[in-house]
Amino acid sequence: MRLARRCTGRTLRWERDHEPVADQETTLRFSLTDVDGRPAVLEPYMGMMSHAAVTRDDGSVFIHLHPSGSINMAAQTRFERAEGAGGGTVMTGMAMGGPTESTNTVTFPFVFPDPGPYRIFVQVKVGGTVETAAFDLEVAEG
């Protein structure tokens, strides 16, 4: 199933092959196309290829996501210091530069904690412009 939301002439599509279920891991996959339908090449935005926020209508859930998974900034700083001190790479894929190959898609690993209505806000950057789209869904009982 493909859901599309228009954002300043481009189309951000939520590409999903199943309905999300509470308490089960899922991958949220989005792709961006230009006005002419060609893939739009994503650029790093605030150090990542995309950002998303998942909210629940009753305010009980607000989660900020990154494509490689999410981690709080204090933990990220600690892991980076450990790497610099000769420690191993703890959080691969969280480098601020993001992927080196061009792409028009971004994915987020996620688990919806409870069934019910949710809204997902997704932000990507292309051509120096930040695009934002919102998607609504009803998460089924697990």
Element-level helix/strand string = EEEEEHEEE
Structural class computed from helices and strand pairing: mainly beta
CATH superfamily: Immunoglobulins
pLDDT < 50 runs, ≥5 residues: 87-100
Q: Beta-sheet strand percentage?
A: 35-45%
Question: How much helicity do the residues have?
Answer: under 10%
Number of strands: 8
Task: Provide mean pLDDT, rounded.
Answer: 80
> What is the domain tally?
1
Round the Cα radius of gyration to an integer and report it: 16 Å
Number of helices: 1
Shape: globular
The span between the termini is 20 Å
What CATH architecture label applies? Sandwich
Q: Going across the biggest sheet, name each strand in turn.
A: 1-2-3-6
Largest sheet properties: 4 strands, antiparallel
Query: What is the top-level CATH class?
Result: Mainly Beta
Q: What is the CATH topology descriptor?
A: Immunoglobulin-like
Describe the structure.
This protein is mostly beta strands and 142 residues long. The protein has one domain: Immunoglobulin-like, CATH 2.60.40.10. The protein is 8% helix and 42% strand. The protein has 1 helix and 8 strands. The strands form 2 sheets. A 4-stranded antiparallel β-sheet has the order 1-2-3-6, with no helix packed on it. A 4-stranded antiparallel β-sheet has the order 5-4-7-8, with no helix packed on it. It is globular and about 40 Å long. The two termini are 20 Å apart. About 10% of the residues have low confidence.
